[in-house]
Amino acid sequence: MVFRKRTRAGLAKEMFLGRINPIERREELAIEDAVGRILAEDIVSEVDVPDHRRSAMDGYAVFADDTTGASEASPALLVEGVDCMRVHTGSPVPDQMDAVVMIEDTLSAGDGGVVEVRSAVHPNKNVSLIGEDVSRGETVFLAGHQIRGCDVAMLAMLGIADVRVFARPRVAIIPTGSELVQRGGKIGDGKIRETNGLMVSLYVEQWGGIPDHRGIVIDDPDLIEKEILASLDAGSDAIILCGGTSVGARDYVPGAIASVGELLVHGVALSPGKPAALGIIDCAHSVPVLSLPGYPVACLIASIEFGRPAILKLGRVPAKPDLILRARLGSKIASRIGYVTYTRVLVDGGVAHPVMTSGAGILSSVTRSDGFVIIKEELEGLDCGDEVDVVWIE
Amino acid sequence: MVFRKRTRAGLAKEMFLGRINPIERREELAIEDAVGRILAEDIVSEVDVPDHRRSAMDGYAVFADDTTGASEASPALLVEGVDCMRVHTGSPVPDQMDAVVMIEDTLSAGDGGVVEVRSAVHPNKNVSLIGEDVSRGETVFLAGHQIRGCDVAMLAMLGIADVRVFARPRVAIIPTGSELVQRGGKIGDGKIRETNGLMVSLYVEQWGGIPDHRGIVIDDPDLIEKEILASLDAGSDAIILCGGTSVGARDYVPGAIASVGELLVHGVALSPGKPAALGIIDCAHSVPVLSLPGYPVACLIASIEFGRPAILKLGRVPAKPDLILRARLGSKIASRIGYVTYTRVLVDGGVAHPVMTSGAGILSSVTRSDGFVIIKEELEGLDCGDEVDVVWIE
Q1: pLDDT band per the 50, 70, 90 thresholds, residue B97
Q2: Which candidate from B58, B152, B199 shows the least CB-CB separation from A249?
Q3: Fewest beta carbons less than 10 Å away: which of A180, A207, A329, A391?
Q4: Residues of B with CB below 8 A from A248's CB?
Q5: Does residue A39 sit in the same domain as residue A161?
Q6: Is this prediction's ipTM beyond 0.90?
Q7: Which of A120, A136, A166 is the last residue of a domain?
Q8: Closest by Cα among B156, B35, B137 to A185
Q9: Is residue A308 domain-shared with residue A207, that is, in the same domain?
């Protein structure tokens, strides 16, 4: 029993993402809790920022006309409190004044006395005008924008306390396998601890989803089906199963997906990660189902390859650059043509040393690594000294 | 009143970081809450992973010797349950067996019957050995390692439920300025909302610190000093002040730092961000104090330039790559030689379009941008078409 065919990783992703619809649910949040969230409304300013003319310098607010021709040799003499006013950076410019002379270009006899102005200024010089930053009626952010710390400060400046954002996708995580025991349970006798579901939950959270780690399901097709349906009933926006996805006698997950929905892909030209399966359950809306291999490295890599973009699309997270370090390969890496291959590497002094290309079951090959060098399917390995992008493991 | 001299940005950072000691406080956390945290202990495995020999394939566990010479034409005939045992990927290999034949290379007459083995296997073929991933006594992580999702899965595999990590640095944030009102307060008449402290708090959290946003302090040197001392008493590992750092009559922060500690730098060749000041207060331990400009863009950029590395060093966060997008400049940018200059850019189709190089007070120049092109101090601007790294704004 082998895979009749393996779908190209890029094609599999395209088929999967093409069936995923971003979620529509919205919620209201205080701006200080909204970092990383996606705006569900355009933000139009109801105010001018600044809402008054501000001095951009420490100095004296003046009538620009009064300074015409002023110089060190022939200063303009202005009476403080009448012709000019002392101002500080950021402080309001009095209504009747129209420019600010820098303190360095003045000489004051003292409070209320005469100020010598030694430099001419034109109107609006060193004055921040009303609405210079944001003007009333201006669209400051569009719906779909991902809110950053600086954006929260801007929202606060506009006097906005709460914003409507899209809800985070709820992702059910179902570990399958009769050999699994809950963490804290007794291992031995062939039993092992459930760790893939834990790992996937943490990454789902990192990618902006809300993980719902459901109990372990043994290798039983009916129970697996039942748990998928229960996850749908619980309102999951996506379902991720770990284990039981290969072509062995106990691999019931792809069959269960096909039975309750549509199995799009089973078997992907991804290394590690070949047994991954992708499906859609079309109930009220189209719910993506990802079946991850039980081997931990394959599980992680298939999560990154398919789970991450699916959750980002559901959550409407705009594209941003990957965390990448440029390095040179410290030795040759082999890869199978037609397969997208994730090599684990350790980076030292700008050189990426391959830790392992195979060994889907050896999680320490990942935990000892800094990142992945992802070899494209059209390549047959990479040479020592090749310049590569190392995708940092987060 | 101008800065007598401005310290080079790189030198200022070096002086500042050189006086910062990583924090020593530790705490114990459940592994599932430890993502992003820094291990304060080496992790040595007390178990073997796997702790039993596992089949790497679906098939039959056999005595390798029994398969010598087996082929399709002349299969070895083994009695199931005696000479061989059906195994699944990941399931234990019975003690008396030493290899696994893939299911594809066998033909079974049915339960308990004779199995035809059509391929020879050598000992340990398709068997994951005890300790293959991690062996008992092996150091799996060193203290100082930043915990990732995959590492949590590894810790769970090792049967570890809690880990000792370094505490997150506590960072006091003190907004100063007589013109400031708390969010929700009444503005107008030259009053503006406090937003810099809010913004800095959000970034401090993002960089791994625990922000302690303290109340607004008016422009009064005694009150500023008092609040710095109160922050020290509250156990702050770092203190960040916003505003009052220039050389105007109302800029009391650098003086207050000098009065209670040591002012290392005042005025930096950083644009925007020139008025920033850096200091250290040496009480029980050396507490860094960062005085940020009141203009929001200058405040943000000086935070990124000095606050971020200070918090990462305090928190012992290992270096990782920046979030960078490579692009070509869509137009020429001017910069002042000797100054590190942050240009805000919007990236579209691989082209970085400068939004603004100056305008330290215009926060919308940042909120409308995707990232910064950071121009080194030895350069005098960049040309249209130059390849640049855009540091993504998070």
Answers
A1: very high
A2: B58
A3: A391
A4: 58, 88-89, 103
A5: yes
A6: yes
A7: A166
A8: B156
A9: yes
